[in-house]
């Protein structure tokens, strides 16, 4: 008969087991604050899922903003290796955000109906971090500042984002510094305005794609931007699909058309010339 295996004791290998006066895992990550931030307003079982899915999405977006700021600064200072690293990471962050929809889609329409009224007028389009991501990337719809006017600090944060060049603006300025002609009206435009697709910018990217040997770093930049927008588009599409699956074509809690509003967002292009140029190559 084999001898019973003794319970594993990590202390025998030197693992710290006493944390009186020492920093523990929970202390470092402030787990108590995170785990005490879920406050369902109904007795519905699935409201916890709804809350946690959106809270974790906000955490991923916070990291995404951190990485996008770093990527933009790296482009501004011609530090392309760092920019590539950050853009690759933020693409994977949006892969995680996409996976979150898979969990939420396990909730049925009848389960959502049990607690939907407790949401009041709250809606995902009011997420100031999502709006900040859009503004960083270059989708600068000033009308979307209004839902944040009641919070002075958030409003000021978003206004400050509109006052500086977007990530895409910095990418186009980088091309210009590297001898790829960008129209002056694009480089000198009011950066708080929405960037519109421009034939001159499309021609600039075409030059990069047609001579990758001499413009390899710029070519790699182009593909990193396309890769990120690919994940971003999937996130928008999964959002539409999830909402339609759960509420059909009801109006959103925030007063939008729900699915109809989200479908309009599918047509928004962050880096339009990088997509349009493919037809010409």
Can you give keywords for this protein?
281 residues, Methane Monooxygenase Hydroxylase, Chain G, domain 1, mainly alpha
Describe the structure.
The chain is mostly helical. Helices cover 58% and strands 0% of the residues. The chain has 13 helices and no strands. The chain has helices at 25-29, 31-35, 47-76, 80-104, 109-113, 128-137, 152-162, 167-177, 184-187, 199-210, 216-247, 259-265, 272-276. Helix 3 runs antiparallel to helix 4 (80-104) and helix 3 runs parallel beside helix 6 (128-137). The protein is globular, with a radius of gyration of 23 Å. The model has no long low-confidence stretch (mean pLDDT 90).
Short synopsis of the structure:
By secondary structure, the chain is mostly helical. It is 58% helix and 0% strand.
**Structural Rg:** 23 Å
Note the run of SSEs as H and E: HHHHHHHHHHHHH
CATH-assigned fold name = Methane Monooxygenase Hydroxylase, Chain G, domain 1
Structural class by helix and strand composition: mainly alpha
**CATH class wording:** Mainly Alpha
End-to-end separation: 73 Å
Structural domain count:
1
From the spread of the alpha carbons, the general shape counts as globular
